[in-house]
Amino acid sequence: MLVLVSTFESFSAYARVVTLPESIPVRYTEEEAGYVTVRPIVRQTFRLDELLDMILSVTGKDAARIRQILHSGTVVYHFYRYLWTGFDAHEAELSAALTRFPDADPARPFETDKCTLAVFESAGAHPKHLLELDRTAGLKRRIFRGHSFWERLVEIAANENPAYQTYSYAHRADLYRLDLNAHNILQITQAAARLAPGNLRSALRILPTAERIIFICPRQSGTK
Prior knowledge:
disordered N terminus; single chain
């Protein structure tokens, strides 16, 4: 009987699912690529959701990569390296935790009033950011003009129904892609000449080398 109890207890301990920690002590320091530097280490306690939110900004909703990072106990985010005592996340429990974060939604329509940033990119497998135009800058109007360049830009995009790309955890926003062609480049160029302030017109000289515009449109707080 004693042998049976001992065996059962041992098996139970082995099979028990370890609950994900509610809080995780984290150390972080600046990461400077290419150099070995001495940086002050900051210590902070993260809630599990806070740590997952940061990791998702790096990995997207890739459960296998998230589990790997949680196990390794380190991630680089916004030029800082974060370190913690690594732990294994049970697949089902991690999946449950990830349901609290938004998913990509290809059916979500492009809404011009939701977008806050337009990123003009070059062509190629690894496109470069040629220009990042935020809504505030784009809304500045020239004297005697009733509309802004930004309003005309998102109107041009909406008329062509830009393709849904993904949900960005880094921006907490949906991303839409407008592929550029001779017709819409001409429309944007004409809008810039008529509506954009001088400094923005100068910045938009990159248009002939741009392949696409990525519109970044944050979701309202609390929406999935």
